[in-house]
Structures are given as structure tokens and as C-alpha cells.
Amino acid sequence: MTEPLVDQPVTRAPGKPLDPPAEFTQLREDQPLVKVRFPNGSTGWLATRFEEGSQVFSDPRLSAKRWRHDTPEGEVAEAGEDSPFDVGFVFMDEPEHGAYRRLLSGRFTPKAVRTKLQPYLDRIIDEHLDAIAAGPETFDFIEAMALPIPCLVICELLGVPYKDRDGFHHATEAMMDMGRSREERDSGANWLVGYITDLVAEKRRTGGTEGILAELINRADGADAVLTDRQLIGLGVLLLFAGHDTTAAMMGLSTLTLLTHPEQRQELVEHPEKTRAAVEELMRYLTIVQFGLGRVAKEDLELGGAHIKKGELVVVAMNAANRDPRTFENPDVLDIDRRMVRHMGFGYGVHACLGQNVARAELTSVLPKLFKRFPGLRLATPLEEVPMDFTGTNYGVRKLMVTR
Ligand code: HEM
User: Fold this and answer.
1) Which residues is 45 bridged to in the sheet?
2) Ligand 1 center from residue 97 Cα (angstroms)
3) Measuring CA to CA, which of 26, 235, 361, 364 is 20 to 30 A from 122?
4) 53-68 burial, b if ≥16 CB within 10 A, otherwise e?
């Protein structure tokens, strides 16, 4: 029997910028996995429910070595062929993936973040809030806070000079924007590769020891080297873009969401002890990975009633799964008191975000401080006029004009 083919939903309903595309509701009701045509025209499966989505991310018969499905129409490439740099362990399976990831994981534990990063984070957030207080009453929150804080943090973690932020941010933006041509995206990625390559050479020359990049250089040099230069540079590029673009998008969107949900914001201001739960709920509600994440079947298999053939791509629409009423009560309601065991905002399974404790620290520090410092903070433009990023790999707000 030939399966009916539907287009992967990617367009949000007018006036509902904080909700995933409305078509997901019906698809999720119809069947757990549906045969789809992806944005680039290739075909495969789309998982829209939480349970089956989490199975896709946990089943060793599905490989992380995949090709992109979210590129513009007609732009289909083989796995790994569509990246100008070594994407490293993001595309690897066990046991190689775990071995690689362990090289970095010590830097990202809750304890490492609490002791090494939190004091720095508190300081830079306070400085930025002071600058906002001293500046114009109406300002762009993205430029004033949502972009600089994640950039400063990733620079501190990696040992990258903050003065270079405009360069690496614009390159990341170009690389992640599926609304741009292949040439533009590749030129962004190539810029990042060139930048990290030069930085590595510089650190080798000066013998700098600060930050993850310096640690990785030690892993690539000497008799007990475990990384090639290409892998080292790939990891540096990955951490640089994954570490700031995502968190910036989430910070901007979270602020917009709380500004448009006054009771939830009030609850957060009155009960700062709810901040951690509020951030998890925002991660679920907003799920910024806009077009989902794919895995490839290594053999024929059955999942959620679908007969998946070896070599087929299965994409998990995490934004749909995180609104699945089978797993979350009243899923379309933002509720910081929600009792939640798990969500997919940071991915799921062995590849779940390595930097999630860093992102959590940033969000749990910024949001309460922001609303405490500026109790009257409000949108300076109506919600319908806030420019959203509909084409980025990560959904976000391009500009967020607010009045303090
Ligand atoms: C709110 C902010 C963030 C979000 C929403 C986010 C989201 C994600 C998601 C969904 C994945 C899974 C990818 C997959 O399964 O293929 C992932 C992986 C990853 N993230 Fe994040 N991320 C965030 C912040 C960060 C930060 C701050 C860093 C680094 C400092 C980081 C570094 C990574 C790395 C290295 C991986 C690859 C993990 C692996 O394949 O094992 N992320 N992230």
C-alpha cells in the first residue's frame, strides 16, 4: 500500500507566533508517524507524538548520521556532504559518540556551571541591566541582552575574544538561515572554520591555557593525541554556534512570552523559587528547533505502526511532541506550575544538548533579574508586529522593542 504524502507543516498560523503550525494537531491525532515531504523535497517520516518521538531518539536501529531535510526546496545532499566542517559527534552513534562527548562533558556538569560560570554570569547580567537602566526607555531587548549574554558566556567558556562577536554572530546567522542561498550559508560556515582555525594557530603560538579550545588543543597535540586538527576545529565551530544562537533565541522568545502572559510573569516575580520550573516550561512551550531533528533507519523496522525501510529518514517534530496532549495536560497553555517529568526542548536521548546546564543557568539568571529590575517592562509594539525568525534552524525573535 502506498502511504499518502503530506508536506511537513512549517508555517505558523497568523497571530499565533508562539504556537507550532496548527496542522500538527490533526497529524498528531491521525497517526504517530506520518509519511511526509520535507521542505527540501525529500521524503521520509515525521513523528509528532511525544512517546514515539522519544523512541526515535532512543532506538539504536536509528542512526544520527543523517542528511538535512530542512534546507530550501531542491537542496538535497548525502549525510555529511552538506557541511563545510567536521560536525563531529552530533552525527555519530554509540560507542564513538559517547567517547567523543566525554572529552567535553566535565565542563558542562551542573557543578562546573555553578562554580565556574555562575559568578561571571551574575556579574555580566547586572552590568547589562545597569546599562539598560542608563539608556533610552525603549530599547531592543535582543541587542541589549538576549544576544550579548550568550555571546559573552560562550566566549568565556571557549576562550574566544568577545571583540570578535559581530563576526561570529553574523556568520552563524547566515549559516543557520534556511531562507538564504546555499552559497550564503556555506560562506557563513566557512567564515567560522577560518576563524577557529586562526584562533587555534594563535593559541598554539602563544600557549594560552584558558578555555575549552585550549583544552582541546592539548587533546590534539602530543603523543597521546585523540583528536585530529579537523575534528578539533569542527568541535570549536560547533560549540561556538550551538552555544550562542540557541540561547539567544530562547532568551528573546521567553521574554516575549512572559510579556504576553502577565499572570505567569507575575507568578514568577512573586515566587522566584519557581524559576527553574518556569524555564523548563518555557523550553517545552517554545521548543525552538523549528523543523525538527532527523535520524536514519539502519535496517527495516516498525515504529508507532509505521513500516520504516532501511535508509529512510525519520524526523521528530519536537515542537509538536512537546504539545502532545497524551503526555502534557492542556499542552497549549503556558503553566509554570506544571508538574513535568521530561520534555524535548533540548532534544532527547544520548544526543540531548550537551550545553543544557549552561543554557539553564543563563535563562534562570536573566529572567527573574530582568522582571525584578524593570517591573513595568512592556512591549513597545503590538505582538503581531514583532518580527519573528521563520526561516532560522532555531525559531526566535529578530528584534524585540520593549519599554522599561
Ligand atoms: C536554550 C538553548 C539551547 C537549546 C534549545 C539547545 C538545543 C539542542 C538540541 C535540540 C540538541 C540535540 C541535537 C541532536 O539530537 O542532534 C543539542 C545538542 C547539542 N548542544 Fe545544545 N541547545 C542549547 C544550548 C546549548 C549551549 C549553550 C551549548 C554549548 C555551550 C550547546 C551545545 C550543544 C552540543 C555540543 C550538542 C551536541 C550533543 C550531542 O550530539 O551529543 N547547546 N542542543
Assistant:
1) 35, 314
2) 14
3) 235
4) bbbbbebeebbbebbb
Under DSSP, the state recorded for 177 is: B
**Collapsing DSSP states into helix, strand and coil, what is residue 47?**
strand
Alpha helices by DSSP H, 2-88: 23-30, 50-58
| Mutation pick for ligand 1 pocket among 149, 246, 281 (CB with most ligand atoms within 8 Å) | 246
- 244 C-alpha to center of ligand 1: Å? 10
Q: How far apart are the first and last CA of the chain?
A: 60
Only one residue has cell 536514519, namely 296
Taking the C-alpha atoms of residue 132 and residue 128, their distance in angstroms, rounded to an integer, is: 6
Q: How far is the CA of 345 from the centre of ligand 1 (A)?
A: 10
Partners of 35 in the beta sheet? 45
pTM for the model: 0.96
How many residues does this entry show for the chain? 404
**Is the beta carbon of 289 within 6 A of some atom in ligand 1?**
yes
90 lines ligand 1 (CB under 6 A): yes
305 Rama sector, left if φ>0, alpha if ψ -120 to 50, beta otherwise: left
| Superfamily the domain 6-403 falls into | Cytochrome P450 (1.10.630.10)
Residue linked to cell 514568577: 268
pLDDT in tens, 298-347: 999 999 999 999 999 999 999 999 999 999 999 999 999 999 999 999 99
Tell me how far apart the alpha carbons of residues 330 and 333 are, in angstroms, rounded to a whole number: 6
Per-residue pLDDT tens digits for 168-183: 899 999 988 999 998 9
Say if ligand 1 is within 6 A of residue 365 CB.
no
How far does the centroid of ligand 1 lie from the alpha carbon of residue 376, in Å? 33
